[in-house]
């Protein structure tokens, strides 16, 4: 399988991802900042890291890694979290840049400051 980002120089996310050949797709439902004990961390950065850990669990269950992500949609409860979201995303994904959409929206539970859904291909 070929998975190639289509990205102009200097942009921190892929404008598009081209996936060629027969491939497996994994569609990850919106992951929320809730741990195995139903606890929600208080701060945005901790919630964001937890959501990425939850995404990683789904990827691993599908035999994939963060490098297989081709599309990520981030729902933030407030535009004030944009910079922190950027920092944590780059901390987690390193140089990998999937296609990305960020939406500022109300979230189902007021304690949740974000939700992230993802699509991976391998």
Summary?
The protein is α+β, with helices and mostly antiparallel strands and 122 residues long. 25% of the residues lie in helices and 32% in strands. The mean pLDDT is 91.
Low-confidence parts: none
Derived from helix and strand composition plus strand pairing, the structural class reads alpha+beta
CATH superfamily: RutC-like
How many beta strands in the DSSP annotation? Answer: 6
- Please give the domain count: 1
The CATH level-2 architecture is identified as: 2-Layer Sandwich
Mean pLDDT: 91
Sheet with the most strands?
4 strands, mixed
Write down the CATH class: Alpha Beta
Beta-strand residue fraction: 25-35%
Q: Helix tally? A: 2
- CATH topology, anyone? 60s Ribosomal Protein L30, Chain: A
| Strand order within the widest beta sheet | 3-6-4-5
Shape: globular
Radius of gyration: 14 Å
Helix content: 10-25%
Distance between the termini: 7 Å
Helix and strand string, N-terminal first? Answer: EEEHEHEE
């Amino acid at each position: 399988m070929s998975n190639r980002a289509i990205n102009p120089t200097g942009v921190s996310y892929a404008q598009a991802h081209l996936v060629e050949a027969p491939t497996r797709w994994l569609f990850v439902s919106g992951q929320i900042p809730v741990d195995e004990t139903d606890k929600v961390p208080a701060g945005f950065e901790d919630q964001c890291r937890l959501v990425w850990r939850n995404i990683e669990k789904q990827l691993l269950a599908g035999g994939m890694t963060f490098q297989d992500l081709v599309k990520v949609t981030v729902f933030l409860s407030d535009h004030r979290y944009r910079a922190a979201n950027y920092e944590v995303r780059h901390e987690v994904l390193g140089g990998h840049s999937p296609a990305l959409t960020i939406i500022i929206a109300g979230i189902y539970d007021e304690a949740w400051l974000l939700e992230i859904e993802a699509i991976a291909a391998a």
